[in-house]
Structure formats: structure tokens, C-alpha cells
Amino acid sequence: MKLGEISALPATELQRHLHDGSLSAEDVVNAVLAQIDRFDPELNAFALVDRDGVRAAARAADRHRAGNGVLGPLHGLPFSVKDVIQTKGLETAYGSHLMAGNVPGKDAAAVYRLKAAGALLLGKTTTPEFAHKVLTDSPRHGTTRNPWNPDFTPGGSSGGAAIAVATGMGPFAVTTDGAGSSRIPASCCGVLGLKATLGRIPNEDGADLFGAFSYIGAMTRTTGDLVMMLNAMSGAEPGDPWARAASYPRAELPSEPASALEGLRVHYKPYLGNDALDGDVSQLMERVLEMLGANGVIVERSDGREDWGSDMARACIRGLMAARMSQYSSADRARMDPSLQASIAEGEAIDAPVMKEIPLLRSALYRQTEAVFESADLLLTPCLGAPPLRVTHLATEPVEINGRNAGPLRSAWYNYPAPFNLTGHPALSIPAGRTPDGLPVGIQAVAPWYDEQRLVDLAAAIELLQPWEVTPAIKEE
Fold first, then answer.
1. Which pTM value belongs to this model?
2. Which one of 7, 158, 181, 343 is the catalytic residue?
3. Residue 157, preceding bond cis, omega within 30 degrees?
4. What are the C-alpha distances in Å from 435 to residues 167, 191, 202, 258, 283?
5. Mind listing the pLDDT tens digit for each residue in 114-129?
6. Collapsed DSSP state (helix, strand, coil) of residue 420
7. What is the β-pairing status of strands 427-434 and 137-138?
8. What span, in angstroms and rounded, lies between the C-alpha atoms of 337 and 441?
9. Is 259 among the residues known to form the active site?
10. Residue ranges per domain, the chain?
11. Does domain 3-263+388-475 have CATH number 3.90.1300.10?
């Protein structure tokens, strides 16, 4: 099998080859590293590639198999980790010059679990500095580009992770999601991006454990791979108060995905507090809904123009960012990305009455979301208000939708994912097709707490009935 063919295989197929010995772990790693060599110089998905470490780990995995050792469920499968997540012995620099040389002494729980299941850590993927925005560029690593068209952004803040998965630079990517940072780049790059229920995948290193709205997430190209990754990372963790006593049924890939749609009730909202939706995005949403309806899904609708907490999300994110960054001197801050400096200043300007009200507003938003599930199994929305933006677009610039200024990115472009970081509900971006310009678009599915299985069922059905395309990097040898 050629290297390009190996890197294009999903983890579910690689697993079979690795277990029966038709491929070695070293074969798979070499294929993925070759893919990185071919495409990363232009796309800039990786902050750091641990070539020596992953090759050594692959050889050890092959020796273990040759010795008839018990193989883990992810034996020999390469994965990447966003450069804001702790990795033992491997620099975690948050995309910042200020964190150069920061080498953790332990892995984050999710990373440790993937390794314990047999997966092999490739390296760290690019992120905006301290993951502060939804576009992936940083003073330290420069600009990260969309694999479908390098003139456009892959989204953020897990932009490098989305590119890595989309282009075959490893089947799994560990991400974070604070306001959609897994789902936004997944939508922009045509892959699956999951934010699980609060606490299902532990985030014990989160800055605010009790008011948590930032999650460890997962990205894959296929639903089967997502199931493997979710099962490996889920479970109890005493370092995360939301995960201390967690116990979940294993997610399962449905054997007959189309049958899972019969009688499914979905509620579609084309807006979530915004007032503009790109025409091409709207058409792709309608195509998915029509396909679902033709396969037994009961589709209800409402416009979604009620308040979905955009201002509250901004206050939460900017306030916490200001608190986290208060340790840095004015000289340090002068070295930061200008948009990060602006975010810190915005957070510092938030007054006390606004912050006092947040717990009440967050509770009301949870109840508002729960009300949808009184008559629906899933809530569906666009993932973004428009297709991927130009790579030159600044985080502080408004977005233009349908030929007019639609307002700030947070309230007009990525307003769809952010509410569910605050409510704790699991949410998944599923590829919904490409615009006439060839840019990917995702549909967001939101489920009741702990019902990731419903998201898996929907993704598997869409993957079967309306298969999403893979990037040219996957198609080429």
C-alpha cells in the first residue's frame, strides 16, 4: 500500500490493518509524516512535530505486537494535540512567545487515555495565542490556512487540528472548545468536530473548574473514528469536579444508520439571536433537512431570533481572559497578538454588575435550551453564519453577510456554537456540503445532556446518505 493511501484511511480501517499485521505502526507513522511534509509547509497545521518520539513509539508498538502483547483499541494510531493542552515531555506553548520552553511533566487526562489505548502522539497543532480567537494565526507560528483554499481561514481556535484531520495528517485530533473552537474549524474544513457534555471528557486543567465553559474536544473525518476517540477519552477524573463520578455508556456506531432516522424529531433554527444567514449556507442547511425529512425525520422549525446569550458569552470569555492574563506585565503584553491585547482590555473594562448577572443568565439559557428538547430529540442550526472568511480577515473586523455588514464575528458569524458551551449540552458540527466557491459548511446538532449517541446516530446517517467530500490532499497519492 502506498503512503498516500495509508494516510487517507480512517482509523477504523487502519485499526484492522494494524491488528492483523498487514500494516505496521511504523508504516502508518511514516505515511502520516510524509503527508505532513507535503502539505504542512503551506497550510501550517503543526506547531511542533515530534518525529523522533512518534517513530520510537511506533517501533515499540510493533515490538509489542510481535511479542503477542495485548493490543489496545487504538494500537498504533497517530494523533495530534492542540498546543494549549498539556503533553508530558513535549512543549505546550499556547501559540505564544511568552510560553516558549514550557514542557509539562504530565499529560492531560484525555491525552493520557489516548496513549493508554495505544495511540501515538505526533505533535502539537497550531492555535491563536492562548486560544483567544476563532481565526488561527499567532505571532509565534504565523498564519494557518484552509486546506480547501489557502486564501481562506480554517477557523479557530483549533484550526491546526482541523487541517491535520482533513488532510490525513493523522486520523484523530484533540482540541479545545471554549466558544465553538472545535466546531468552528470543523465546519470550515469539512470534518467532524465534537464538544461533548460538560464533564464527559475531563478538562482538569481548565482555568475555571466550577464555572466551566471550556471543553476538551475531538475531531475526526468519519463517524466511526469519532466513536473510537470519544470512548477512549470519556470517563471519571477526580481533577475535574464535573467528571468526578462520571459513568457513561459506550458510544456505538449504528449498524444501520438510516433506520435510526425513522421518527427522529429535530427542531431547526436558522438563526440563534442573529439576523443574517448567508444564502449559500442556508441552501446547504435546507438540503440536509430535505434529505432527513425524506428518510423519516420529523422536522419542526422556529426562527431562533430570541436572545441566545451572545453578550453573556462575550462577558464570560473576555472576563476570564483578563483574569488569566493579569499575571503578565505590560512589557509581556506588548509582545502579544494585538487582538489578544484588545481582548484583555475588553475584559478589564467589563463592570461588576454585568459579571454578577452571568450565573442567572446562564441558568436561563440552560432552561431555554432544555425547553427545545421537550418536543424534539435534537436541535439543529447552521454552525456558522457564513462560509470560511478570508485568511486576511481580522478578529476585530465585522463580517459581511449577503452583501451587508452583519456585525461582529461573535454575534453574526460564530454565534451558533457559543451558547452550548454555557449550557453544557453536547454539540457536533457535521459536514453539510460545500458552497459554489468550494468552501465547506457544517450543520450543528445539539443533544440533551449525555446523549452523544444521538449525535453519533445522526452523523452516521448523514455520512451514509449524503457523504461528505474529502480534501484534495486526501485524494492525491
1. 0.98
2. 181
3. yes
4. 19, 15, 36, 25, 9
5. 999 999 999 999 999 9
6. helix
7. unpaired
8. 28
9. no
10. 3-263+388-475
11. yes
